[in-house]
Amino acid sequence: MPITLIVDGKPRPFISIKTFREQYHLPAQFGVGSFQPKNWSGLGSIDSAASALIQLRDRVMGAVPTHLKPARLLSAADDISAVFLAALYEINPAVGLKPVEIDFAGAGFNDVLRAWVYALSLYSLKNDPSTVPDFRAVYMDWLNQSVRIASPVYEYAVGDQVWGVQVIVHAYGRMGLLVARDETHTDYVYDPALACPAEGFMATLLEHVCASIGAAAGIGADSL
Question: Which of 89, 108, 151, 211 is the most exposed place for a label (fewest CB within 10 A)?
Answer without folding.
Answer: 151
